[in-house]
Design goal:
Length: 379
Amino acid sequence: MTEKGHLSLKPIRFTSIEYFGEIGSDQLNTDYILSKLITQNILYSAYHQPKTIPEIADLLAIDPSIVEEEVVFLEANGFMNKISTDKYQTTMFITDISDEVSEVLHQIYSEYAKKICDVYIPFVQKNGADIIADKIYTPENDSNFFMWSFIMFACDKKFSYPSLEEELKKYQTIRSNGEPNIAFTSLIKENNLSYYREKYYTNGSIEHYYTLSEVWPVRVFVYNTCYDDRQHGWGRSVSVDPAYLYHFMAGKLNDKTKYSDIIEGLYKKGYLVSKNGSDYVNTVIISMTPDELNDILPPIPNQLLILKEDLDEKVYNLVKNLHPKQVAEQTDLLYKCFISKNEIIARVLEQLLLNGDLKPITDIQKKTVNMIMFSPTHP
């Protein structure tokens, strides 16, 4: 039996909330609510077992009316379900992994990342960039900066499994804004790990498209890792900022008085850079569609696909008993489609830096690294 007031004495805290699926324009407000310590502990208290509002209030040692107000919001937005007349259960995916399991997972992910760097990445570096050299804009012609983004795109696309992702969609929750997704997170806690776990936290990739060009829709791909330095809330702003950047490149923001706020924002966020008396666009731009680029990327070698099957089985056996029955069916799919992939890709970057295949980037490059804008218009 859980001790009364347990979570008030030793509250838990989430890492960032991640989503598989669509996110709406009002997601910033939801993220703010979910960032509150009280909200996170309410969600965690009813994750493994359904709880009544008084039971949650006892665990948190707070007034039931406060819990009720939070639960109303969480239920309305699909983060909790009312499963009886008075009990609620959390529906989002919360991972709480022991140090022992974390060490084993770290070893599995790191070994596979090394294999990817040895077997697959050389093909991406050698074949891909040469084929599309005439379609690439890279800030200051920095090939290293380009390769950061190019490799991330290749890994994100080629290590995806569309059929499994399609199957995972049936577990998505329709949020109050109408957007379907699965929300998941893990716990921040003290540990005695042999490695720095936060180094591998990532929100994965975000993609947006904008009907700005008559040729084909402008699209943007962004992959978030510990190596970038994007402003807080970048996931929301990326839905509009690349559109402003496109208009800037197309000469539609020439009235600097009228569009001063927009242009100032592009400089502040690193999309535009002033250096030595001149300005330049600070993101990789490719005059192809994402599908066209994906089609010319080298496929995953069979030996990596075989190893992936072994990895999936090992990971699932480690994590299958860590989650309650309401998310049991999606556990395997989430790790195969999203969690394991992001853990591995973060370690691929680390290994490439250790190998010297990628070099450290500058502070201004950290604002737009691992981002590709697919646009028929170049600077």
